[in-house]
Amino acid sequence: MGIFAGCDEAEFRIQETEFRSQNIEVKRKECGMERLPAKSFQDLIVWQKAHQFVLAVYGFSNDFPKKELYGLTSQIRRAAISIAANIAEGFKKKTRADKVRFMNISQGSLEECRYYLILTEDLKYGNGLKLMSQLEEVSKLLESYSTSILKSYL
C-alpha cells in the first residue's frame, strides 16, 4: 500500500496543500489578520490612525504662540485634517483612478504635515517627535492602502 495509506501520491499532495491552506487561514484568524471588506471609511485602519493623528495635532498645536493662530496653527491642523478627510472621501469613489487620486492628495497633505513638524521644531514651538512617529505610521499604512487599491483593480 505504500506510505500514502490508500491515497495515490497526487491525491496526497492535494490534501497536504489544502491542509496547509486551511492551517494558514486558522493562523491568520488567531492573529487577528482576517481581513473583512470595509463597509465605511471608519473601518479602515489607515483612516483610524490618520484621525488619531489629527487629534494629536490639535493637542500639540494648542500650545503654539497666539500669533500663530492664523498661521502655523491653522496650517498644520488643516493639513492633518486633509489626510483623514481625503481617505474618507476616496473610500466611496467608484473608479480606481478616483480612489488613487484622493489617496495621492492625502499623501501630499501628509508630507505637508511632515514639513510643519520640522518647522515647529526649528521654531522651538514644541517637540513633535511623537507626532512624527505617528505620521510615519500613517504614511506606511497609506502607501499600503494605495498599493492595494491599485492591485485590486487589475
From TrEMBL:
GO terms for cellular component: ribosome. It comes from the Bacteria. Pfam families: 23S_rRNA_IVP (PF05635). Keywords: Ribonucleoprotein, Ribosomal protein. PANTHER family: FOUR HELIX BUNDLE PROTEIN. NCBIfam families: four helix bundle protein. This is Ribosomal protein.
